[in-house]
Every structure is written in C-alpha cells, then in structure tokens.
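Box 3.1 A note on notation
Throughout this textbook, protein chains are presented in two layers. The first layer is the amino acid sequence; the second is a token string describing backbone geometry. Keep the layers aligned when reading.
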Amino acid sequence: MQTKCKLFSTHLLHEKLYFCQLNHIKNHMKQFLLLLMSFLLLTECNHRHNNEDTFFLHGIWTLRHAEYPLGNTYDYPMNGNTMCHIYDTDSTLYECRLATTISGPVIIPETQFGVRIIDRGNSYLYLEDDDPQPLTIVNDTTIIIQRHGVLCTWVKATNLEQEWGDEILAIVREDLKCSTNGNEHRYIFSAKEREQASVIRWFTLSTIIILLISLLIALSAITYKKEKQRLQLQLQQIQEVKENRPQSVRQMIETEENAFFASNIYQSIHQRISSGQPFKATEWNDIEQQLKKVYPGFISQIRSLYPMSELEYHVCLLIKLRIPPTEIAAVLSRDTSTISTVRSRLVSKVFGRKGGAKEWDDFIFSIGK
C-alpha cells in the first residue's frame, strides 16, 4: 500500500513539473510574439516615414511638359518661359511665371494656393485649395499632376533653388501678401548684380580693414615716438644727475663701491654666483638691497628706462655686480650667446639704434654713480 502511495505521489510530482515547464514555454512564446509584432510595426513605420521623405514637395518646381486631352503636347524649354511652382512647407503653393534671361531668372508672382497630399495606398491625391487633382510621383525630381484635364510634368529646379531659392521665396511670399490690386511685378535675379554686390561688399570690408590697420600703425608710431621721447628725457636726466653731482658725493660713492667689492658680502655673493645654481626670489632681493646701499639711484633708474622682463632685469643686476657673461649665463640657466643677445637688444630698445653687448655693459656701469 505504501509503495502504491509513493508511486502515485511521484506521478503527481512529474505532472506538476510538466505543467510548470509547459507554462514556462508558453510565456517565452508570448514574449517572442510580442517582440516580433513590435519589430513589424517599427518596420512598417520606418517604411512609411521613408516614403513620406521621398515624396516631399518642398522647393521650386518648373513645368517641362504638358499633355492635353486631345493628344496635343508641348515641351517647355529648359531656359525659357515656363510656369514655376514654389512649395513653402507642405501646405502652401506659390504659382509664378518664370523666364530665363542673360541677366538672370525673372520671376512673376501670380497666385497662392493651399495644398494637401493624401496617400491613397497605391497612389496620391493632390489638392489645391481643396480642388482634387491626381498626382503621380515619377521619381525624386519629377512629378505629374493632372490639372483641368491636362497632364503637367513638373521637374525639380535644383540649380535655381540652390542659387536663388531663399531670395525667390522671400520676395514672392511678400509680393503675394502685399499685392491687392492685381498688378504684375517682375523680379530679376541678376547673377551679375550679385557678383557686383559681392565685390562691393568685399571692397568695403577690405577698405575698413585697411583703415583699421592704418589707424593701428599710426597709433603705434605715435606711441613709439612718445616712448622714445620719454627715454631720451630719462637718459638726459640720468646724465644731468651724474654731471651735476658734487665731487665729494662722487668720491663717497666710489669709496663705498671699492669697499663693497672688497667686502666679505660681495665675495659670498660672487662665490654663490660662481657655483652656477639658480637664485631664489629672496636672494635676488638681497642683491637689490646691497646695490641700493652702494648705488642709491641705480635700481630706480633702470626700472624707469624700459619695462624689462625678469631675465633682462637680472642680467642688469649681475652686470652691475661685475659678473662675467659666462657666469651670468650659468646662474640664469641660459647660453652665453643668449646673454649677449639680451644685452645688445637692450641697447636697441633703450637707445633706438643698433649696439653691441659691451656698449650696454658700459652704460650700466656709468649710471648710479
């Protein structure tokens, strides 16, 4: 009896597992079908969206061929008088006459329609102010519209649209909005006039740029002249101070100078420089203070001459300390040739003429005494 019960329980367990697996498979199938339906819907939407993009009428179209009910046909010339349709978005049509001349295209605005396109599955219904007209899409650049029994073939005017599209649309839109007396207005879009306008625009711009450059050059020349006059005055004042200094003051400065260069302080500074290690900001301040004690007017005089860079200023301090160019180059981490260039350029900047490095050294030695 117990064996039968066990077998019955095992059978129930297997059935339960079977139904669980079956439900699990059904759930997976449902998910798969939902995903498949979603994919098909998205594909259909994309297909419709692509079709809508393909048959978008926005832009300029010109009439190229007309086929009348009795079988007569007429081909409009590529460069001649024809009709022109300008579709402004999907809902507005401006109808114009178009003529091509030597000067450029001539646009004559005539009327405005409200337009709609209705997709009938395998064909399209085209409406102008709710007047239905069959529409056939030949390709992206050619359409056929049956209007009052006449089959009109319209071709996209790509070149005209690229060159004049925005200007034509703006003028025609404004003309048809403002014209109420029925008078015709002709608008000539001249490539020659556009070229002339472009030349005039560039000429005006070039003239303005030349005037601005000339003004900057004149201002620079005036600034340079004033700066040169200021430097000359400053040099003259330095020379006058030096010449008018009493002999007793000169002797005192010379005594202080000799004592400084023989002192332990100078020897310490010179040894520090000879080591070739770069100076810290505090060490440069110490050098300034020592020079101010020996040459009271030196620092202010070189500062007033020219807005020197840090390198130029430090070169001047070391020259005044009678440090040779090779050691100046070492302590400033520069080549000796660079130090020579700095000195000769300072002659040019301060005196306004070419000069050598030694000439600048002699000038530095002369001031402050």
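The longest strand covers residues 105-119. Residues 191-244 form the longest helix (54 residues).
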